[in-house]
Specification:
3-stranded antiparallel sheet, mainly beta, 6-stranded antiparallel sheet
Length: 109
């Protein structure tokens, strides 16, 4: 466990985060339905995610610092990172898929 620093509008947040599986990904909040890649991940990579019975298989290339689905996120479902809503899925996103602007609409004003 370590603290991840994030600056939002001049406010510094310290988020307890969990680096796991050889520092391949970051789980920022236990309620997140996404993980953040700490290195490039490739189709077929298997991640041992805490709380999951079976390893999560990456289904496509996930660039460093991008998100991947931790669980299935259905079309219209909220996408959660930092324990907060960051967008809404615009299509079904299977576990291990890239979560980005092609399948998520941001909810920022």
């Amino acid at each position: 466990m370590f603290f991840h620093q994030k600056t939002i509008s001049h406010i510094i947040l310290y988020v307890m985060a969990e680096k796991t599986d050889g520092n391949k990904y970051l789980l920022l909040d236990k309620n997140d339905n996404t993980l953040t890649a700490l290195q490039d991940l490739f189709s077929g990579d298997r991640l041992n995610v805490a709380g999951m019975k079976d390893p999560l298989t990456v289904t496509e290339k996930i660039p460093y610092a991008h998100k991947l689905a931790r669980v299935k996120i259905t079309d219209g479902e909220l996408v959660i990172k930092y324990g907060a809503v960051i967008g809404i899925a615009t299509s079904d996103i299977e576990p291990g898929m890239h979560v980005h602007i092609h399948n998520v609409k941001g909810l920022r004003a």
